[in-house]
Specification:
single chain, about 130 residues, mainly alpha, about 0% strand, disordered N terminus
Length: about 130
């Protein structure tokens, strides 16, 4: 490998590590204006203009900032990837994704605990 190839590979690795660590620091900075512009163009309900959308986005961003450390790291990485792919970014969508992931995990854990209580392991030792 040449020196320049090694340097490029090292920089790419470092950038990848920084990207992987980014979700732990706080919510990403998203440009939500395109999302709100699109929402306002398609709004059927009165009062759902760009300003109302931006208000919802600010509220979601504040909630994310307040609770960021409480969300699972893998969920943050997945949800950030989902929100940044395929269309305009949105804090409301990011918050919804994280809440769904959290709630799904809670449901799975509750179901597993309930199943364990309903089907206890048989006692393998026999009493005489």
């Amino acid at each position: 490998m040449s020196a320049s190839t090694t340097t490029i590979a090292s920089v790419a690795l470092l950038l990848g590590l920084q990207t992987a660590a980014a979700p732990a620091e706080g919510p990403p900075n998203l440009n939500v204006a395109p999302s709100c512009n699109a929402a306002a163009r398609g709004a059927i309900a009165i009062g759902r203009d760009k300003e109302a959308c931006m208000g919802d986005e600010r509220t979601a961003q504040d909630t994310l900032k307040e609770n960021w450390s409480k969300y699972n790291g893998a969920d943050k990485t997945q949800c950030i990837g989902n929100v940044k792919t395929g269309g305009p970014a949105s804090y409301v969508e990011l918050l919804s994704c994280l809440e769904i992931m959290r709630d799904a995990k809670s449901i799975r854990e509750t179901d597993a605990a309930s199943a364990k209580q309903d089907n206890p392991q048989p006692n393998r030792r026999r009493r005489r």
